[in-house]
Amino acid sequence: MTYRVLVLVSGSGTLLQSLIDAREDGRLAAELVAVGADVECAGIDRARTAGISTFVHPMPTLLRRGTPERLAWDSALAGRIAEYRPDLIVSAGFMKLLDEPCMARFGDRIINTHPALLPHFPGAHAVRDALAAGATTTGASIFWVNDGVDTGELITQESVEVLPTDDEATLHERIKVVERRLLVDVVNQLAAQH
């Protein structure tokens, strides 16, 4: 049986592209069944170009987790996801924390990537935070999503040296190279265990 993967994105979609490239090269042991986003973005364009089903589920305003409006949005997102019957959901630069409806329905099959060696530097500015802290090593992590912010059980991580010449952009790009490779490896490992 094919291992069905749905990817959630909010931005440029470079992590998604690593999965698309692996699929094109015959290195992905899974089917990319859909890509969803909270905004029209380059990631959705990449999916459309690759012939992958897409959906955009916009959040009308910035809704705080746990509010009735946010729970309704999250419940509707869970419904959109469920249409594709995914075995795995990959949060690949999806800049929203999932709330109770999604977690209750899919919490045991959502993974996320993060540009730091968790538990160090959680949150949206991990690369900037690592540089500000004077870290000499950071890296990339892939983990199971839970109700916290980047607090789920680690699946894998790999170190990346912080160079004296690094700024946020150069360091982030070197981390992304590792993050993309790890993501393909983890999806393949999970597909093999399915």
From TrEMBL:
This is Phosphoribosylglycinamide formyltransferase. It comes from Luteococcus japonicus. The active site is at 114 (proton donor). The lineage of its organism: Bacteria, Bacillati, Actinomycetota, Actinomycetes, Propionibacteriales. GO terms for biological process: 'de novo' IMP biosynthetic process. The gene is purN. (6R)-10-formyltetrahydrofolate binds at residues 65, 95-98, 112. Pathway: Purine metabolism; IMP biosynthesis via de novo pathway; N(2)-formyl-N(1)-(5-phospho-D-ribosyl)glycinamide from N(1)-(5-phospho-D-ribosyl)glycinamide (10-formyl THF route): step 1/1. One of its GO terms (molecular function) is phosphoribosylglycinamide formyltransferase activity. The record marks 150 as: Raises pKa of active site His. Its EC number is 2.1.2.2.
